[in-house]
């Protein structure tokens, strides 16, 4: 009995550590294949103004667009109760203000977490006849975002931003890796996002 329990504990530790290592490895990659669209995962916005986390993602997406990675940038994300703007609207307007043409922007105004957002983006891709995407998010979020996008039917690779609060200190990075490890494992086991956990879903 003791050996069985020990084996289960060891298997759990190995699963968690290997997942954390994979998240760390994916965070260090920067894939920029020619794609149908660059997809920016939403984050907080304040009365239509992107938060510092969201702004870092948008600036990186703008750089990818200017480098010719894709002809369209898709911003995605809904809004919380009481908000006047969706994350997708705030992101689209920010990029328009930075000089991107309207025809190069698509706002998918749905999704309160990564899973809902990826499913909404997949529906928009199907309408447009698109299949390939480069995802822009924070480094530690990249592996889970890629997995959810692929499960939704999108051929996805990621080009994480290297700016913003999520990458400022080693302590912050370690905390995000722990959170993402838990969120990724929950998704792989249940097929759902973590409920009631702001910033993780």
Automatic annotation (TrEMBL):
Residues 1-22 form the signal peptide. The keyword Repeat does not apply. Keywords: Signal. Residues 36-182 form the DUF218 domain. The keyword Signal applies. GO terms for cellular component: plasma membrane. It comes from the Bacteria. CDD domains: YdcF-like. InterPro entries: Cell_Envelope_Assoc (IPR051599), DUF218 (IPR003848), Rossmann-like_a/b/a_fold (IPR014729). This is Uncharacterized SAM-binding protein YcdF, DUF218 family. It comes from Geodermatophilus ruber. The lineage of its organism: Bacteria, Bacillati, Actinomycetota, Actinomycetes, Geodermatophilales.
